[in-house]
Amino acid sequence: MSRNITRAVAPLTAAVIGLSPVLTGTAFAAPAPAPAPVVTRAGLAPALVAGRGARVDFAEQEAEHAATDGTVIGPDRTAYTLPAEASGRQAVKLTPGQYVEFTLPSAANALTVRYSIPDAPDGGGITAPLDVTVNGRDRRTMTLTSQYSWLYNQYPFSNDPKAGLLHPDWWITECSCVPAATTPAPEIATPFRPNHFYDEQRLLLGKKYRAGDRVRLTVPAGSKAAWTVIDLLDSQLVAAPKVELAAANVLLFGADPTGRRDSADAIDRAIAFARRVGLKVYLPPGTYQVNRHIVVDDVTVVGAGSWYTVVKGHQVDLATPAPDGSVHTGVGFYGKDAAAGGSRNVHLSGFTIEGDVRERIDTDQVNAIGGAMSDSTIEGLYLHRTKVGLWFDGPMTNLKVTGNVIADQIADGLNFHTGVTDSLVADNFVRNTGDDGLAMWSEKTGNARNTFDHNTVQSPVLANGIALYGGTDNTVSANLVADPVREGSAIQVGSRFGAEAFTGHLWITDNTTVRSGTFELNWKIGLGALWFYALEKDIKADTRVTGNAFLDNTYNAVMLVADWPVKDQYSITNLHFKDLRIDGTGTSVLSARAAGSADFENVDARNVGAVGVNNCGTFHFTPAGSEFALTDLGGNDGGGTTGAWLAPWELPNTITCDDRPPVVAPPAPSAW
Fold first, then answer.
1. CA 659, CA 587: separation in Å to the nearest integer?
2. 21-29 own/partner pairs: CB under 8 Å, 24+ apart
3. Would the CA dihedral through 452, 458, 462, 464 be positive or negative?
């Protein structure tokens, strides 16, 4: 597919690969200067996404820009491949003895490495070493693992690479058939649909290094991993641990900071004491083993910082299923159930929650944060390897979720589920979720007046970066969404999953998406970076899509779909597009596969690969034209291979339908 900004690998000079200087006459040759570091955001030059996404304190460096003697893989957007799930759709593959070396762009004492190593032949993962040196010394060894990656098969997936189809009665694209209803039965190769390849690990370096210092990641010669893929390195300067003196210190209540003994009861005691006397609860530096939910209400729990305070647990089998259907429990901080009144005045900050979730069981309550929390704040947490980072079951109100990092989840990053109102999700960084990165799901009771603002969502393996399922007066603003892998979009507006209708208004404002719009396996069509989907109800709220940038779209920038069985029942109307910049579409700017209408003002497009408006309506192809109508309010400029993207001949509802247009990979995005 299309390429990003220049992906050249730095020359392998003697200085880069660590050879001794060459002796010439009586003097040593000066070492070659270190290659200039290439800092990106979501795999793009930072200037292209200025003002969008989470404001973070680390610098992202893609491995394909670094010095290496390994092999650059990608670019590729084909699902079930290592490049497709990599940030920017490229990475570096190393075999034992090979390295990739990054030049620090600024002072740093901490690193995050995003990587993939093979699964065990029968599933379950392996471990393998990775050596880390700075300037050729100060060696440390990280132990990488694939125990939390590598899923297979159909939803909700399997850990067994050799398993047969989980749902042989489902239609699959691989044979364009229902295997159980097909004679002779098709042979389905295993492993079937491998996915969720990547994981990440953090490393404190123990000292501060300067800009220009070189961090080398080397696979030791004895590694049992046949290959190691390095996707990127995040580097940052972490402040000293935070100390809270006027607080209920969990150590005084018997918590074990070595992680050898379970500390859940001790933390409960500290919380109970703190509530009685009006203190915060403090988790000093250390690793605290917790294998169940910590219930929080009217309490503040603070750690020394997410790099220093880790609350880590094992997934625990339940002897009998819980009333909510859970068959496991695990580490998590939970508000009380909404049915019991929920929790209020909860404030969590400054620690890591490290889970042990290796399979997707949707009934399991094994989320890092859960329950209902009103008038509460969650800030500065690192949420890793749980089912969902934050899953809230309302009704609840006035929650602020800010400045968190959510990584390597089996399902969603965050979900506002059922009756969440007047709440804010801002400046969160979400990477490698197994489902929607951020979602508002108005099941049974509508969400209202919530805002997702200035978040970054990267590489959701399944589904969408940001998803809105019903709701009233919600806002999605100034987010950066990159690299959804399959069956989803950067932003989806969906009438589905039993959601209440969209009512009032919906603002989608000043967001940037890149390399978005995936291939929908069941329909065998390409989606849009922004996807409106009418499956269960009309979508007719006042929807304003304003000031967004849709960059390097794999297929369409915007797609409107009513599912085929209901295409004559539901429509998509009251859409208003204004002040958009669309740079590169594999197919069209707009693909309409529904009845409805929209208007466009000051929408500039370039590098459009197919007809600007692919208008199929509801596929009746009537003499009166398509069932979807477009209004040109002026200022709509640019186009591509077929001329102006919004040409007079396309208006108001000319049928221009190409069910599966060929894809023309656009050039890399550039400054407008």
1. 11
2. none
3. positive
- Measured in residues, the chain has a length of 672
Task: Determine the pLDDT at residue 379.
Answer: 98
What's the start-to-end Cα distance of the chain, in Å? 22
Q: Is the whole-model pTM more than 0.70?
A: yes
Q: Which two tokens stand for residue 596?
A: 């409805």
What is the DSSP secondary-structure string of 292-355?
A: SEEE-SSEEEEES-TTTEEEE---EE-SS--TT--SEE-SEEEPPPGGGT-EESEEEES-EEE-
Spatial distance between the Cα atoms of 101 and 69, rounded to a whole number of angstroms: 9
The parts of the chain modelled with pLDDT lower than 70 are: 1-34
Per-residue burial over 474-501, b if 16 or more Cβ lie within 10 Å, else e, is bbbbbbbbbbbbbbbbbbbbbbbeebbb
> Under 8 Å CB-to-CB from 336, ≥6 apart: which residues?
295, 297, 342, 343, 371, 372
> Contact 280/248 with Cβ under 8 angstroms?
yes
- Residue 151 gets which letter from DSSP? B
CA 47 to chain centroid: 21
How would you class 20 by CB atoms within 10 Å of its CB: exposed for 0-12, middle for 13-18, buried for 19 or more?
A: exposed
Determine the pLDDT at residue 35: 73
Mode of pairing for the β-strands spanning 228-236 and 58-62: antiparallel
Question: Is the distance from CB of 427 to CB of 402 less than 8 angstroms?
Answer: yes
How far is Cα 435 from Cα 370, in angstroms, rounded to an integer?
A: 17
Query: What's the pLDDT at 32?
Result: 53
* C-alpha to C-alpha distance for 83 and 73, rounded to whole angstroms: 6
- In angstroms, the CA 102 to CA 232 distance is 9
- Asked whether 366 and 387 are in contact (CB, 8 A), the reply is yes
Model pLDDT for residues 610-628, shown as the tens digit of each residue: 999 999 999 999 999 999 9
Cis link prior to 323 (omega < 30° from 0)?
no
DSSP code at position 173: T
Render the burial of 630-651: b for 16+ CB within 10 Å, e for the rest: bebeeebebbbeeebbbbeebb
CA distances from 159 to 26, 483, 486 (A): 61, 24, 19
Q: Which of 142, 137, 185 is nearest to 164 (CA)?
A: 185
The DSSP letter of residue 30 is P
Say how many C-beta atoms besides its own lie within 10 A of residue 19's C-beta. 11
Residue 188 exposure: Cα atoms within 13 Å on the Cβ side: 26
CA separation, residue 116 to residues 125, 229, 432, 564 (Å): 11, 5, 12, 38
